[in-house]
Amino acid sequence: MANDIQLADCADCLCLASRRAARTITRAFDHELRAFGIRSTQFSLLALLELKGPQSIGDLAESLGADRTTLTRNLALLEKQSLIKIRPGDDARARIVSIMPKGKSTVARSFPAWRKAQMAMTASLGGEMVKSLHRLAQASSK
Asked: What pLDDT does residue 8 have?
């Protein structure tokens, strides 16, 4: 190995740190939402549909920053639980996702648990870190 490579610098890898932090945050939200039979990713998806109304799968993927394959798997689970409905769009290739009454009820019932996790993570991270995280997330969606 070349003498100029300083692999010890990898201990401070931002990519690794951000992935570990994301898993920690996700576990905190999942822990609070478990009693409602959903995960944090599913809550976010249901909340987005409740806020914005029916969306194409492509628009949902873009809003959530998710790849379509992962999103399609999550949608299938939610549809199986009757939390959402997927129908063909005007374009034969498009599929439109809508939140169902059971999904609306799940969001309403689980919202206090989501808020508890949100407050705990905000307190743990601190206001400036939360702002930085939001700025980074916004920059990546451009």
From this structure: 83
The topology under which CATH files domain 20-118 is: Arc Repressor Mutant, subunit A (1.10.10)
Tell me the per-residue pLDDT of 53-87, one tens digit each, with 9 for 90 and over: 999 999 999 999 888 888 999 999 999 999 999 99
Three-state DSSP string of the chain: CCCCCCHHHHHHCHHHHHHHHHHHHHHHHHHHHHHHCCCHHHHHHHHHHHHHCCEEHHHHHHHHCCCHHHHHHHHHHHHHCCCEEEEECCCCCCEEEEECHHHHHHHHHHHHHHHHHHHHHHHHHCHHHHHHHHHHHHHHCC
Report which residue type is found at 139: A
pTM above 0.70, yes or no: yes
pLDDT digits (tens, 9 = 90+) for 105-122: 999 999 999 999 999 999
Write out the two tokens for 35. 């009693």
Domain boundaries, given as residue ranges, for the chain: 20-118
